[in-house]
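Data card: per-record layout.
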Amino acid sequence: MSTHLELALAKRAAEVASKSLMRQQIGAVVATTSGRIVATGFNRMRWWAPGNVGNVTRSSLGPPEPLRSYSIHAEEDAIRKTLSKHWATQGEKSLALYVVRLGATEPEWGLSAPCEGCERLIYEASSFAPPVTKVLYSSGEGNEIVLAEVVEK
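The structure for this 153-residue chain is written out next.
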């Protein structure tokens, strides 16, 4: 059973998910144990031109290369923002991560368990900031959230 605070933070993650332009809209919130939000993130695509280096582009040296893309997961986005705001987590002993996927038929939330890569990132990020000791994600059964254990990868 989730606490009122946990549900409120999960609802905030759902609001953040609505910013995503991806088919599967996923949002994440990193918060202190008292519930103060440190950072938010959502899944999205990032594009880059492989030949660009500083102000010199590959196209000036030859034919332009096509843009390439990769996806940024909501957890990665929120954790990277948390790491860049180290001042916002000073004095904190631990953090919690809330992840919610908007379902195909709102207001139901879909299953949003972090993938293996995000689990590894959550664990590794703990050496640079207060550790994420609690990960809560939408279960895919109504608007329920599930507590996951943070384990070493």
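Known properties of this structure: Strands lie at 26-32, 37-42, 44-48, 68-72, 95-102, 109-110, 132-138, 145-148. Confidence is low (pLDDT under 50) at residues 55-59.

See the next section for split statistics.
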